[in-house]
Amino acid sequence: MKNSDCTVLVCSCDKYHDVEKPFASLWRKFWPDCPFETVLLSETLSSEGFDRAVLTGGGKTWCEMLAEALEKIESPYVLMLMNDYFLNAPVDTAAFLRRLDEARRFDAASLRLNPLPPSHKAWEGSDLFEMPKNVAYCVTCQASIWNREFLLGLAHRNKSAWEFERYGSFMVGDEKRPLLVTPTKEFPFVDAVHKGYWETFGLAVCRENDIDLTGITRTLPPLKIRLIEGVKGLIFRIVPTTLLVRIQNRFDLGAKETPAGGASLSTSLPAIATTTVDSEPQPATATVGSEPPPAGGSK
């Protein structure tokens, strides 16, 4: 019998169908005793390794897909993950259940399990911190326990994953419930794909755990993409993040969701460090036997 207090929702789309198999393999390895139903959200393609799938059909925005899935989930809380959040260490089920209990006890709108960005406002009665509202990325797609109704409300008010984070962060000023965050990263995963390209540490996790990547043709990012991400990371270090995001929102700047449904469901916070630059993209077929590049860098 599954625990009915929470549901794991793994957001995907047909364009990212290829990463669902390694996600599921690592999920089974590192959280074999997951007590919750695990639901895959995608358009028309499903994958093994999940308890069930919600397939919304093509032509819908990311938030329309998310809302449809949430309406088919009955649990009061949802652990929302992107399909390229590859587990890289065992999940502590008891610790997760304690955080779920805190989300319920403190009536949290969300409880983020990765302090990115961090908060320094202590929450009374626990070691948690409270995220200030109406600041950049107080709403993100980072691994979080969400109040399902709150998450559904945000989904109804936005379109893309990009809007969900960038605009949604400034839609919560009147929300009475807290946005909580853990003091350290408590859900052990790497963001394996960024803007459609493999991250070196994503490939490394797959190789270290003998994950079969046969048939996956994604590459590491070319030089141009890495340089752009490096410049963006530098800008975000220099300019206060909330100011910068408000400017982006005001002038509608930044990556958009194309096509409808989400070309890049794995929206991430701005890069804060650059990875080693290669002059050419490298094949990511990583048909175990080819050495993946050394891991390094962070988002």
**CATH topology type:** Spore Coat Polysaccharide Biosynthesis Protein SpsA, Chain A
Strand percentage, roughly? 15-25%
The SSE order reads EHEEHEEHEEEEHHEEEEHHH
Mean of residue pLDDT? 85
Radius of gyration: 18 Å
Q: How many strands?
A: 13
- Helix content bin: 25-40%
Strand order of the largest sheet: 3-2-1-4-9-6-10-8-7
Specify the overall morphology.
Answer: globular
Structural account:
Strand 12 and strand 13 (197-198) form a beta hairpin. The chain contains 8 helices and 13 strands. The model is unreliable at 257-299 (pLDDT under 50). The strands form 3 sheets. The chain has a 9-stranded mixed beta sheet with strand order 3-2-1-4-9-6-10-8-7, sandwiched between helices. Helices cover 28% and strands 16% of the residues. 42% of the residues are buried.
